[in-house]
Structures
1.
Amino acid sequence: MHEKSNARMVDFSGWYMPVQYTTVIEEHLHTRSKAGLFDISHMGEIEIRGAQAQQFLQALLTVDLGSLSPDRCMYALICLHDGGTVDDSFVYCFSSTKYWLVVNAANTEKDIAWLREHASHFNVSIRDISDETAKLDLQGPLSENVLASLSAFPMMMLERFDIVNIRIANIPVMISRTGYTGEDGFEIYFSANQAESLWTALIEKKDAVKAIGLGARDTLRIEACYSLYGHELSEEISPIEAGLGWAVHDKQEDYPGKDMLLTQKKKGTARKLVYFIMDEKAVPRAGYEIYFKDACIGHVTSGTYAPTLEKMIGMGLVSTPVPAAGEALTVKIRDKLYGAKIVKRPFYSYKGGTD
């Protein structure tokens, strides 16, 4: 279906993925103004079932599942004992005995191995359902109207982080009001053998919906200051360093990395994520060095041209104490230093206030 839409296909962590259909800028702006359709079927889905499913995940995730009611989902981190990040994920609660973890595609096998390593003392089963589960994301201000036209369910009743089992275009789906673009939107999970049918039903809404590739997915998430594993998070970068302390709880139960993460939360870290806008038309790419007052203080983790802002923007991991908002930095790009200014996050936020 992507090839029929003239997508430019690339290798992405071993997956054959569409990077763009027209141009990244056009697809980005369409998602901000109408509705963008993303094929995210490469993501990993892991089902955790059993009498102790909640206790098991409570002992592994940084969030407090006691606050997560059935038919809701939340962002969650899986950490190493030293506070490094195994992966970031979304945890979906169907009941106290059934959960899903939605994880990064490249980390799925590693995540399952980590879960199973810690499951021996719990009455749970862990199943990789990634191959049988397709995932399409519809993001943007018109996404609710598009889905409402294809379903009898009153989409306006679904609040941010709610999940529900319904039919869209007469196809059974599980849908959540979530996304990775900074816009209002929905993530749709369903049987892989229905992927072509649902893709076709959505893409036929031509006035509102366009297919969006990985290129615009990246520029959209950078504008919203969302972390990407391997850039803002890794086994060497803790959630606290990445500015995700709000997803690290001091719940009663222990979980891997808890002591280190709470210490970092209380006493601070040697590195911290910062956000900056370039003064000049130069793109800050991941790995480029960041300087403050002639000293190298860190590196760019993600950078891009931001179509919504019409500026070059970036995120970077730098040593503390970090420069304050408004202070000047320089970024070394091809042996030349280019000026930038520290800003507060996010670069862009959805005006509807659901994020």
2.
Amino acid sequence: MENELIYDNAGRPSIMVPVPKFNLSEVIAGAPDTPHPAFMVGGKEINEVWISKYQNIVIDGRAYSAQLQEPKDTISFDEAVTACEAKGPGWHLMTNAEWAALALWAKKNGTLPHGNNNRGRDYAHPEEQGITYDGYRTLTGSGPATWTHDHTPDGIHDLNGNLFEWVGGVRWVDGELQIIPDNNAAAGADQSKDSAAWEPVRIGDKTIKYKVSTGRIVLTTKKPRCGWDGCYFRDLQADGLEVPDLLKALALYQADDEKVDGYFWVDTEGERLGFRGGNWDGGVDAGVFSLAGVFRSNVLAHFGFRSAFIPGI
């Protein structure tokens, strides 16, 4: 996956990695032979998406992918969306569909990324380390090749740890799962709180909800009580429901019984947006299948983001 410099409307470059289209059947056993949702925009198939190689910095209100930088933190969801879309047509906040595509591809190919999830090191591989700038966060792309999605120097860095990353196109409202279908969040769809672009995910005529209890998250079609809790991604349960392939494709439910790292937090009160990957001290809780839902206005030191690009949309 050869890297390229892609220039935005301000004439500044970002280092980007192409991710070619693949079908669900290539990454999920028994799934249909149709394109992963990341490669469907506006009802049409696209051949590839371009993902920032590095967690982004911000210059003059625009997001950039550059090596050996201190990635932008303390940023809200809406601020991250704005910084990406300010770069011009086709630029957007990396979507959950795109993130899930990378996670599933890496799992299938045996290259689940290591990363800074132990204050500059990987908890499971302590010999691997990046360049820290405050004792625990690492400069973008400063870790070894195993910290990329394909374990090569050309891969996408830091999807496991360092900073949690906001992703577009997925949210929970009072525990109900809602998405912007396919990868339409990449094409300038309105992601504001009251946007009509959000759609609940359904089984038949009922919507899917995430119910939390002590140390458990269970898929249900019943209205959950308000609560906040989590479990490991591999321990999500389905309450007797037949889990749609869509949830597996979007890395919102495990695709098989294989154990993977990553913790999954859900709050069933109000609107919650998704962020993924874990942070610098997440340990086993971090990883590409890690996810949490938080207020869109949350601004914390462990929140970052990255932009993505689809030409011609």
